[in-house]
Amino acid sequence: MAEHKNKKEEQLDQFKAKDEGQEMTTNQGLKVSNDEFSLKAGERGPTIMEDFYFREKMTHFDHERIPERVVHARGFAAHGEFETYESMKEFTKADFLSEAGKKTPVFVRFSTVVGSRGSGDLARDVRGFATKFYTDEGNYDLVGNNIPVFFIQDAIKFPDLVHALKPEPRSEIPQAASAHDTFWDFVANNHETAHMVMWQMSGRAIPRSYRMMEGFGVNTFRFVNEEGQAHFVKFHWKPALGVHSVVWDEAQKINGKNTDFHRQDAFEAIENGNFPEYELGVQLIKEEDEYKFDFDILDPTKIWPEEEVPVKIIGKMTLQRNVDNFFAETEQVAFHPGHVVPGVDFTNDPLLQGRLFSYTDTQLIRLGGPNFHELPINRPVCPFHNNQRDGYGRQTINIGKATYHKNSLSNNTPTPVSEKDGGYKHYSEKVEGQKVRARSDSFQDHYSQAVLFWNSMSSAEKEHIISAFSFELGKCKEISVRQQVVDMFANVNLKMAQEIARNIGVKEPMEGGSSVTSSSPAVSQANTVFKANTRKIAVLVAEGFHAKVKNMVEAMKEKGMEPEIISTHQGTIEGQEGVQMEAAETFMTTESVLFDAVYAVGGEKADNDYDKHTSYFVQEAFSHFKPIGASFGGKRVLENLSLSNEKGVIIDDEEDNFIKSFTDAVAAHRIWDR
After folding, report:
1. Is 72 labeled as catalytic in the residue annotation?
2. 577, burial (CB in 10 Å: exposed 0-12, middle 13-18, buried 19+)
3. What is the pTM of this model?
4. Residue in 6, 79, 139, 145 annotated catalytic
5. Is 379 annotated among the ligand-binding residues?
6. Longest dimension (CA), the chain
7. 109 labelled as ligand-binding?
8. Residue 211 marked as a ligand binder
9. What angle do CA 395, 397, 398 make, to 5 degrees?
10. Coiled-coil stretches, from where to where (predicted)?
């Protein structure tokens, strides 16, 4: 928890209500004498209309749900703070980026895109990464995803994309999944999706944790400085723990074992003081360099390769406080890429242009009208004054006669502010041309960067992409859809497409491939940060465990790992020499897939039940390429499974040797060579 309360926390405190220990009242403040029985005409008679309290309570209940978001319905959010590393005045006049050490309250919402609010966290899907900066100049929303490109180039196609992605309309099946005919039919007939689909079939679509995924602004924006000079800019969030994923079999099992896996992971990390951290980076291109690249920098299906346009790290965000109420904060927060501050402006990116309309429009129906900015989570920390009035949910009590501009009754206030005094001014860009419904020829290359992405992948990542395509297309009922997609992605890599074709039973394409040989190491997860910090370790213990096991567990904690004791029963587990440990979980209450590594230690009283469950834990972890450790009595289980000499399997009774080797293996995330 932060040592001080920032402006947003102080503001939210005004709206908090603690009901614990209070007397019950109606919403009007009338004390309630009975909350068990409705008012009746006799003990067995009908409830009568006079019961105003019953009607108030039931009416509120009947209306306490709001429409879920069409996309990004399932989310998790947290409060935090952003600190600037250095002044960015050279590039932008945005005040929150104006000086080193300046801190700004933030609220971040992570989400899946396709599924409903009740869907599972581990769907193969894009993840939303939306950040609201509560700056002194107003709210600034950086609304992005964990993948830097998008499916389409023009916002007018967004309804078509979502209709194709959502469950098929006749059956409402499948939920939170793209593995069905309508999505892949859309892909096959809209080749601009090629690059994004390559990312979606990679591990990026099944992250290990919200704490271990990147965030991207996706669209191209502008930075504008005090002199009016502009730079094109793309935004990046770089997680301190690196970028890591699960494997698909693991993802499906986690969804069945713990639907809230990502939510719980982030919530518990914050509660335990392991605050998620992300560095903010920007890619900057001078206005005069707009056309020097072999792709259009305004095309949202393209990245700016970091090798060509380096990412400049400018600050760090730390998420340090969970919400107090999910509905009031996580569900009611309203983001909009048009919520900007002086120094941040837009470009002619056609996807961005459409987003500038859509986000406000959708909040009107979700949050009941135009006053959603007055909800506590959405209120800016600076004052706001204008002539907008009334409407559903109005909270401000405006005083004065004049509600229009210009006026004399209120001395022509509120008054517009000049640019030099902080008033927002759009970047002065010369625009001319015929009115046309068309797409620039510079947007027509749909495959070069899809090939670049494939070229950048490690061998393990390429295997995962082929498996993902094979699973997704294998779920399509229409053979023609499968064939069209395979033929389409032969343009990315012929051998990849041929292997997918064999897996899903369609004709192998005989032509395809690309002459593109470039790669971008930055997009491969093989080149990320590797740490053992906050990794969850399943410590499998039986009665009579070796006394040194407790030292091993404490040493794991010192290395930043989070060991959890699992046994055949909960509570105290008795070890040798009077040593005790507390088992928080049993083999019945948790699962191997919920951990990053397994450590088996056994015990003198280990029985067949312990051996059976330990074998299952170890085998499943091994099949998902996870590190496995064993000491003392746990070695027997690994020997019986013939795993003792496998890579990433650490067997040692000596504390220092074991902890060093095991920590290195856990930090590696997966043992892909296996």
Report:
1. yes
2. exposed
3. 0.95
4. 145
5. no
6. 90
7. yes
8. no
9. 130
10. none
